[in-house]
Amino acid sequence: MEKKYRYKEIPPRPSNPRSYPESDKRYWYDEEYAGWRTVKYPLPLSPGDGPKGKRLEIFCQGRHPYWLEYMKEAKKEAEKENFMVNFHFSDWDQEVQTNTFIEVLRTNPDMIIFAPVELSGGSECIRLAYEKGIPVIGSNQVLDDESYARIIAWSGPDDWGQQRLLARHFASQLEHQGGYCLLTHQPGTSTYLARTWGIISELAAVAPHLKLLDKQFSGFNREQSRRVVHQWIEKYGPQLVGIVSADDSLPQEGINRAIVECNREDIVRVANGATRRGLGFIRTNSLSAVTWQPPAIDGSLAVKIAADWFKGFRVDPITYLPVRIITMENVDSFLIEGLGFEDFHGEDLSRMILEGDLEAIVGFFDDIKRRVVNEQIVGEEYFGGFAIELMSNLLTLADKKGWDGVSFAGGYEMLYKGLFQQPTVSRSLDWLYNLAVKMVERLMETKQLSGSLVDRLNVCIELHYNKPISLKTLSDHFGLSAAYLGKVFKESIGVSFSRYLNQYRIEKAKKLLSSGNMRTKDVAEAVGYADSSYFYTTFKKFTGTSPSDYVE
Fold first, then answer.
1. Planar angle of CA 481, 450, 245, nearest 5 degrees
2. Strands 55-60 and 9-10
3. Which of the residues 52, 68, 422, 525 has an alpha carbon 20 to 30 A from that of 183?
4. Between 10 and 59, where is the model more confident?
5. Which residues pair with residue 214 across a beta bridge?
């Protein structure tokens, strides 16, 4: 018999959920309805004297747009309730989170709000807090039964319910036919299970003719997401009619960019998150729908529950955010305050620079330019303050690397001219972009890039594709043999370095040819081919047509 609770209807548990296939929603019963059948252990009693002056330690997963907005609203709510609050970010590293958690326990905080990176590590942290008598409120991430038994309360999204609603919308947009791919959340998390198997199992029930073609995790990375989608489009062609993404910000930017580059705007896209970036994608028809999972409410709700507990009020063991999706029909009601620059963080740009992720840097500035100049979602009058904040982050990064930030940018006069005496906002953004690229080049020269070896090889291609470049020329720079560099590159990317370099050059050539302003010989030189006949042969090999026919 189905039980109705304040926030969710709980069906009876199958006698053996694991006897069903993974594509059957009954298989995931214990994950979808986690915590509802748990009997609590003896828990700390509320002092009943209110939250004022109490120390609240909040653990977030990483510095992602979602968690930054979560922190912002949680902090605002904590200040309103007169908590003393500290935030801890682990950058999705469970070992880092566990070590930080143990250090925090030694200081005897009054309460912990905890969103674990991984289920097993999170369970151990909660056990340690319980043994010390420190109350814990679980947030955002689903826990195991032992953890639910040891915490005061849990709040967060009904991720499974959201996926089932999103899947039904997705199926209707695809007319219940075709193939689809999933860009997943981080494996090992409850979010991964819900946003992968919630979609798959619901589609298996409501649209059995829809076929799952592939699912991959792209590390919440814009460029890696773009590459994955390029591979999908190349491999599956017209079979691929839809993509579901577990994240509507950086990965979705990569998805959208790949779809534009491959001229496949017909592919239906839905995603999770409802960040301002995702809402903007709906506004511009780059997304059909997103789940409504507002990080602001997620963060503030956990703090409100903490405050109620300290006041001696009864708190529900589980509190869900509402289940709904956002589409073009209702997106405006979620954008009453307008789309600002909240989802463009200087920290994101600094990370891209440190990793040498030029493709991501291009996307970062293109998206700002689109928002300010093309779509006029944000007024130009707001640009000045944002530009100063962005510039400040770049100067701070330069100083951290031992450079004089102001001198590196060309002095105070150049800073002022670059930002505020350009004829257009677009030109100001171009100036900031060029400064960011200059920083990548300096990091490359001084061997300070933080990305992987393959990431750094990609940066070399992106910076120097129009010059003589080969594994042999790069071997001296990296201090590694050409053979080793080639082996590592092919294992990671799937094609040889020389083939990837030629593909990259030809893509650049196609864009120059499409402009119609350059002769074929000049295009060949511009993309790194000194021999125009070799360029002609290579172009035809990769495109199936000659440069002159391509222009026509």
1. 110
2. unpaired
3. 68
4. 59
5. 181
- What are the pLDDT digits (tens) for 136-183? 999 988 898 899 999 999 999 899 999 999 999 999 999 999 999 999
Cα–Cα nearest to 154, from 194, 122, 185, 115: 115
Amino acid identity for residue 404 in this structure: D
The distance from CA 141 to its chain's CA centroid, rounded to whole angstroms, is 16
| pLDDT score, position 345 | 61
- H helix runs in 274-357, sequence order: 276-283, 295-310, 346-355
**Per-state percent for the chain, helix, strand, coil, to nearest 5:** 55, 10, 35
Exposed / middle / buried, residue 245 (Cβ in 10 Å: 0-12, 13-18, 19+): buried
In the predicted structure, residue 415 carries a pLDDT above the cut 70? yes
CA 272 to mean position of chain CA atoms: 10
DSSP 198: I
pLDDT digits (tens, 9 = 90+) for 357-413: 777 788 788 877 776 665 444 444 456 666 777 787 788 888 878 888 778 888 877
Assign 295 to helix, strand or coil. Answer: helix
pTM of the predicted model over 0.85: no
Give CA torsion, residues 185, 186, 187, 192, to 10 deg.
-30
In sequence order, the 6+-apart residues with CB closer than 8 A to the CB of 248 are 271, 272, 273, 274, 275, 277, 278, 281, 287, 290
Cβ-based neighbours of 140, under 8 Å, separated by 6 or more: 61, 70, 115, 156, 157, 298, 302
Higher pLDDT, 462 or 337: 462
What order of strands is seen across the sheet that includes strand 84-89? Answer: 84-89, 55-60, 111-114, 136-139, 153-156, 318-320
- Helices 453-464 and 358-369, axial angle in degrees (round to 10): 60
- The three-state secondary structure class of 425 is helix
The two tokens of residue 78 are: 């904590």
Q: From CA 119, how far away is CA 180, in angstroms rounded?
A: 28
Which residues sit opposite 178 in a β-bridge? 210
User: Residue 440 CB: number of other CB atoms within 10 A?
Assistant: 21
Contact 471, 486 (CB under 8 A): yes
The residue to which tokens 């968690």 are assigned: 67
| CA pair distance 84, 220, nearest whole angstrom | 31
